[in-house]
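Record 1 of the preview.
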Amino acid sequence: MPIIKQVHNAENPFVQILRETIRDNNLSWKARGLLAYLLSLPDNWNLSAKHLATQAPDGRDSLKSAIDELENNKYLVKSKIRNEKGHFIDWKYFIHEKPYEGSVRPKTENPTSECPNSESRHPKNNVYKEKCLNKNIKESKPKKAEHSSLASDDAHASPQFLILEEIVNMLLTSIISLRPSFKISDDLLHKWHLEIDRMIRLDSREIEEMKQVLEWLPSNDFWNTNILSATKFRKQYDKLCIEMEKAKNDESKYKIFAFKAKKHCNLNNLNISNLGVYDKYSKFDLSYKMPYEDFCRCLAKQYNITNYEGDM
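->
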């Protein structure tokens, strides 16, 4: 049958949705329509279930069954919202453009009555959207404590929480590798989650760059003994980035010479890594931590390279 489409421009706004999502045969047409509508809304949109029921003639029962269907197929994950006394007052829904693959279920939270205006910077190409479908909750005074949309307990099922978890674990691994007896507590990890969250939300730090810094950190003898907490990591982050870039430039210089030597002398047994070079047969080992001139001289001496100062 002919399909007539409109021109998509500023005068005719459009929504982009993954093709595999809208064609998921596990969803009914009703559920697909609801999912498309929810994905068309801005992130953190404050929307009531009562309002949703007015946007289509299906009625509340039909809406409820569509929501249940999305939940069963993991396009929707929900968590309980409780007041300050711990009483259940409503549900918060996390909408995913692709079925959520995690096994962690969201925990309950004690929020203010409205959907929080999250300051979080979602990673690029993130298909996650957080929406509150509140049911006319009465106004209550907001908490004085800082609200973290990424680190709060209700976000345990969201990609944002999983990103926080990954970064915290990377920092912890870096510390434990040098200090196996380092004491860890739930309270400490919670504080680290909050601190990493602030780096992303308030300091506008790039997630991939943070991971790169943490991967590099154990190789620096000075900084790996000084960064022992998320607070210190945040405070010294700019210096760490500068040192990492400097190390990368130095490292590339070492690598270039090593690759030239390997090619010039057909050194198939010479392994070149991000930390140094290693010959698995002769057990010859050189680190990039040594001065560059000494590195070149030792490598040349080991393999009888006479013209290492010129072009190889």
